[in-house]
Amino acid sequence: MNYDKLDNEELLFLSLGAINAGRDADAVVMLKTLLEREPGHVHARYLLAAQHAQIGLRDRAERGFRAVVADAPDFAIARFQLGQLLLTRGEAEAARETFAPLIARADALGAYARAMRALAGEDTAQAAAELQQGLALEQEIPALAADMQRLLEQLRAAPGAPIGEALATPAALAAPRFLASYGREN
Questions:
Q1: What is the pTM of this model?
Q2: I want to staple 30 with a disulfide (CB 3.0 to 4.6 A). Which of 15, 63, 91, 97 is the partner?
């Protein structure tokens, strides 16, 4: 498909539709087209990093999330996703540092960041408590809440399981169908 007649806002909107429909290749092409036109478009860069995570290109995803966080340190969900990715890679200290700016937040994302930091320290009891606290708060990102609920259930089902196993699931890294929703609100 030729995207020349679409403006950047249309490309972003259509890429979100492609992400939510599981059309990964279409989403990547649209996002790259948008980024060719506007290389600094933070939301498009974030979504491209999320797509890279979805299709298994973890190194590209990490580079993308790092770049977004460097350019937009207050883009909370990008920071959260980077922290999750680092945690799944076994980089606990880097994950803790990445989550640090989020832990003072009084919202659900702050509680989820505290849960991830607890997991980085292999404290599953604290992680479960923080997940419960976050789930009890207003949910600005329902897809993230669903992922955190699944993670809580995994922790409860296998309390002694290695942390890496719980975090290696798609729910823990949040499939991009959900990432598109994450980016809209945070």
A1: 0.85
A2: 15
